[in-house]
Design a protein that fits this description.
The protein contains 15 helices and eight strands. The protein has helices spanning 10-16, 33-41, 51-67, 73-80, 86-103, 163-167, 170-181, 215-234, 256-259, 261-272, 277-280, 284-310, 337-344, 356-365, 370-376; strands at residues 7-8, 108-124, 128-142, 148-155, 196-203, 208-213, 318-320, 323-325.
Length: 394
């Protein structure tokens, strides 16, 4: 398959997957060659413009604007905010970006935002020169240690990051390699040979985590990227790979591996009967992935059936395989919570429940109550949770 313009981007790696060469030991990012082919060779994939994607794009544009001049995050957002995202998400974005500005390292000086960089990766004996490319969200110089170059990768994740995110931060390796190769564009010539690279995984809604990238890290990454490029260029079959991303893949309904899951699942259950635990345990994650994908497929099929039933010429029904589907009138019970609390009095608190996430959101809007709330919300010993981790040498 081809690599567009012979320039490998992180989005290509995310679509194709890491192949058999692990960038991070114990972390397998399977991707799917069939999805890569549909996107970059056949060019027949049109991604849904979800609100999450629009929100992330708007936040990136706003940061680029206020990083480039004396303007507040709110004013920057007002310039580019998509009307479809509405006022509630605008308020959320203002709050997130204001907090991010407050915690940005004052010891750094921004030299570029949304900066595209390119570097030669290797010369392929069959296909010629292959390059790496990518746009870095923010590049900065350390004002105390002039030999250190910083970069930021802005994320609009809905969940807080952990240091495990840094271990699997392929985009961070990508940016760091590009920055090392182009260091002479951002710092004094006498410092280029000893440049140090620091990356910040900036989860806008939460906090930032930093990682230092050593020369050994980046040499290993570039060997991984070369291996990936060689694999893509010589892949003539684009075989599909079932993976956790199948549930939202835009070509899943045209994928033999995805559509064939129910039959494969039945065969799998038969094969697993009376199988030893030593064989089953390592495949637990595969079982979970298949279950989630089947649930997603079931939801998709039900949605399509509902669409056919509601079609103007359907006669309010859909028939297939000796079965008729139709929409049956239904009711659901609802409660006036305030009225229930008044009737039950103090007994109400024995059945009422509230999520810790809702409490955290309330505290964010009422910071003056944080100290008292921390006294009311504590930790108790819970049932141990089953976890797993790779074992070296096995």
């Amino acid at each position: 398959m081809k690599i567009p313009d012979m320039e490998l981007h992180q989005s290509h790696a995310r679509s194709y997957g890491g192949g058999s060469f692990e960038l991070v030991p114990g972390y397998d990012d399977p991707g799917c060659p069939r999805l890569y082919q549909a996107k970059y060779e056949l060019e027949r994939v049109v991604w849904d413009d979800s609100w999450q994607r629009q929100y992330g794009a708007a936040v990136h544009k706003a940061i680029d604007i206020f990083e480039g001049g004396s303007i507040t995050p709110e004013a920057a957002l007002e310039k580019i905010w998509p009307v479809v995202l509405g006022p509630e998400r605008f308020i959320e974005a203002v709050r997130d970006l204001t907090r991010m500005v407050e915690r940005l390292a004052v010891e750094t000086h921004t030299v570029a935002t949304e900066q595209f960089l390119r570097m030669k990766l290797y010369t392929d004996e069959d296909y010629g020169d292959v390059y790496l490319g990518g746009s870095i969200d923010r590049i900065a110089i350390d004002l105390i240690n002039a030999w250190i170059l910083y970069f930021d990768d802005w994320k609009t994740d809905r969940k807080p990051p952990s240091y495990e995110n840094l271990n699997r931060w392929i985009q961070g390796f990508w940016y760091a390699s590009l920055l090392r190769a182009n260091a002479d564009s951002f710092m004094a010539d006498d410092l280029v040979g000893q440049v140090g690279i620091k990356g910040r995984y900036e989860a806008v809604k939460w906090y930032g985590l930093e990682r230092v990238f050593t020369n050994d890290d980046l040499d290993y990454f570039e060997a991984w990227a070369e291996s990936l490029a060689r694999t893509i260029l010589r892949d003539k079959t684009a075989e599909p790979i079932i993976n956790p991303g199948c549930g939202w893949c835009p070509i899943r309904m045209d994928c033999p591996a995805w559509v064939g899951l129910p039959a494969d699942g039945a065969t799998l259950l038969e094969r697993m009967t009376d199988t030893k635990l030593e064989f089953l345990a390592p495949r637990l994650k595969e079982m979970t992935d298949v279950r989630l994908q089947l649930e997603k497929l079931e939801k998709d099929v039900k949605g399509m059936i509902s669409g056919r039933v509601l079609a103007p010429d359907s006669g309010d029904e859909f028939k297939a395989g000796g079965t008729r589907w139709f929409l049956n009138p239904a009711e659901k019970r609802v409660a006036d919570v305030k009225a229930v609390a008044k009737i039950m009095g103090d007994d109400f608190w024995f059945l009422a429940s509230v999520t810790l996430g809702a409490i955290d959101n309330w505290v964010e809007d009422h910071p003056e109550e944080r100290a008292e709330m921390e006294k009311a919300v504590g930790k108790v010993r819970a049932k141990p949770r089953l976890k797993s981790e790779p074992v070296s040498g096995e």
